[in-house]
Specification:
It comes from Paenirhodobacter ferrireducens. Belongs to the MnmG family. TrmFO subfamily. It is an enzyme of class 2 (transferase). This protein has about 450 residues and is an alpha+beta fold. The chain folds into two domains: about 270 residues, FAD/NAD(P)-binding domain; about 160 residues, Elongation Factor Tu (Ef-tu), domain 3 (Beta Barrel), CATH 2.40.30.260. It has a six-stranded mixed beta sheet, covered by helices on one side. A hairpin with a 4-residue loop joins strand 4 and strand 5. The relative contact order is 0.17.
């Protein structure tokens, strides 16, 4: 027991933590309640299942903080990034994957590792002894969440996360829709045509907004509040903030030219991104929703090109749970009250697949180092990974702590960088160059 690492949760963070610790020579037991105990959002018992988008977002490691995080995870031999690269789909400048093939490959890699064993069970209480990583994610079971609250004496924070619908490609009317990535981004023709675009006139957009606002929505349970994370707002919540909000968000028409009517500028555009390698499924980008199923079908069929669409999956909404990490965790991601317990992934208050997996990577390496008698310091705060762990373990304001994506605002500023919009590209390149050098030193110091 003393030299074994136990991990609760087989999502992005738990899978990456298990891989990193096992690669360091530490025996791992991965505890996962699925498929015996189901959740609202998961469809299978596979590890690292993608329940929302199939995108890991920007892959630009020179001028984007998410792309930099991709680079760091690849440099550290990350299972999630390596598997994503092998199952990537055309998505312009983003890294999108065939979600089923991706999670199946992660599952196969973990199950074939000689140092990883598995316990198909639900853990309902925080363990009092042994080395553990809690990586149960935003869908932490009620019993374990209660145990966390009882142990810490703090109320668990919560927000609501919504899932976008998926459409069968063959039911999209390509006489109306066309294929193009925004600004024709991508090095290959496949990349430059990675998205399907559905144009709207002003009248069509206004009618769509009216229907969206009038549609039946999922009701919350008594005592629950809709504390949404801004990076994953349901479209109807965005519409409630102003009729033009969607047109300047996921439905913005910029960088796109209608192949059927190049002389006409669309008032708004709905984009769909390929969801599997076969190209038979497409998800509606940014269309997370809490509309009831019947309402979704009728409202989404108002979109030009989707009037005869069939849906492989409709949108949904679920509760996300996360702890107030700045008050509860030390810089080793350990619970201050019980240092034998580490937390990783979205339950710590990072947001996104990549960020969750990155915190799993860190937790796995830190736990392995501790079990082997050492101590691994976190990466420098000037790195993407270091900026995130610094944010959740003390850099954030505890009273207003909310889920956070990686972004350059978390990085210590560059002393010699041009300010303003004109200097932004050079400044971002400066951030990534500095981060890569420091992260490379952090890896080298581990031998």
């Amino acid at each position: 027991m003393s030299d074994t690492l136990h991990i609760i949760g087989g999502g992005m963070a738990g899978s990456e933590a298990a891989w990193q610790a096992a690669q360091a020579g530490v025996p791992v037991v991965l505890h996962e309640m699925r498929p015996k105990v189901a959740t609202f959002a998961h469809q299978s018992g596979d590890f690292a299942e993608m329940v929302c988008s199939n995108s890991f977002r920007s892959d630009d490691d020179e001028r984007n903080a998410v792309g930099l995080l991709h680079w760091e995870m690849r440099a550290a031999g990350g299972l999630i990034m390596g598997t994503a690269d092998r199952h990537s789909l055309p998505a312009g400048g983003a890294l999108a994957v065939d979600r089923e093939a991706f999670s199946q490959a992660v599952t196969a890699a973990l199950r074939s590792h000689p140092l990883i064993s598995f316990a198909d069970e639900e853990i309902t209480e925080l363990p009092t002894s042994g080395h553990w990583i809690i990586a149960t994610g935003p869908l932490t079971s009620g019993a374990l969440a209660d145990s966390i609250r009882t142990t810490t004496g703090a109320e668990s924070l919560a927000f609501f996360d919504a899932i976008a619908p998926i459409v069968y490609a063959e039911t999209i009317d390509m006489d109306i829709a066309w294929r193009q990535s925004r600004y024709d981004k991508g090095e290959t023709e496949e990349e430059r045509t990675a998205y399907i675009n559905c144009p709207m006139t002003k009248a069509e957009y206004e009618a769509f907004i009216d229907a969206l606002l009038a549609a039946e929505k999922t009701e919350f349970h008594a005592g629950e509040t809709a504390g949404y994370f801004d990076g994953c707002l349901p479209i109807e919540v965005m519409a409630e903030r102003g009729r033009e909000t969607l047109r300047h968000g996921p439905m913005k028409p910029v960088g796109l030219t209608n192949a059927h009517k190049p002389e006409e500028k669309a008032y708004a555009v709905v984009q769909l991104r390929r969801d599997n390698a076969l190209g038979t499924l497409y998800n509606i980008v940014g269309f997370q929703t809490k509309m009831k199923y019947g309402a979704q079908t009728s409202v989404f069929k108002m979109i030009p090109g989707l009037q005869n669409a069939s849906f492989a999956r409709l949108g949904g909404i679920h509760r996300n749970t996360f702890i107030n990490s700045p008050t509860l965790l030390d810089d080793q991601m350990r619970l201050k009250l019980r240092p034998n317990l580490r937390f990783a992934g979205q339950i710590t208050g990072v947001e996104g697949y990549v960020e969750s997996a990155a915190m799993g990577l860190l937790a796995g390496r830190m736990a392995a180092a501790e079990i082997k008698g050492g101590c691994l310091p976190p990466p420098a705060p000037e790195t993407a990974m270091g900026s995130l762990v610094n944010h959740i373990t003390g850099g954030a304001e505890a009273k207003s702590f909310q889920p956070m994506n990686v972004n350059f605002g978390l990085f210590p500023p560059l002393e010699e960088a041009r300010g303003g919009r004109k200097g932004r590209k050079d400044r971002y390149k400066g951030y990534t160059d500095r981060a890569k050098e420091l992260f490379t030193h952090w890896l080298a110091a581990q031998g």
